[in-house]
Design a protein that fits this description.
Helix content: 55-70%
Strand content: under 5%
Structural class: mainly alpha
Shape: globular
Number of helices: 4
Number of strands: 2
Largest sheet: 2 strands, antiparallel
């Protein structure tokens, strides 16, 4: 998949392009090229989000993420469902860092 030249892209535009590229890097390796199967989701979680999600190798953890994301219950995760995951993780990380910074500032 090719995207517009990112040479002049803003930081946010570059981040958006990276999310699109990352999704399509894993989607379509099996089945529909516009969705993530359970195996594709597991590979993406392990490779791309392992530091944030912990043990994505755990089948139950992958099943839970798949169940939570697969809002239309088709057994696959489409791009919209993927963006919900990325958004939720981003919010959680922001909350964690805000709380961490508040605790650090109180100790000073």
């Amino acid at each position: 998949m090719s995207l517009p030249n990112s040479e002049n892209a803003s930081t946010l535009e570059s981040a958006m392009q990276l999310m699109i590229q990352t999704f399509h890097k894993y989607s379509g390796n099996e089945g529909d090229k516009y969705t993530l199967s359970r195996a594709e989701l597991k590979e993406m979680l392990t490779t791309e989000l392992g530091n944030y999600l912990g043990n994505a190798q755990d089948r139950e953890a992958v099943d839970k993420v798949m169940g939570d994301l697969d809002s239309n219950n088709d057994g696959e995760v489409d791009f919209t469902e993927f963006i919900i995951l990325v958004g939720a993780l981003t919010v959680a990380c922001n909350d964690f860092f805000l709380e961490f910074n508040e605790k650090t500032e109180k100790k000073k």
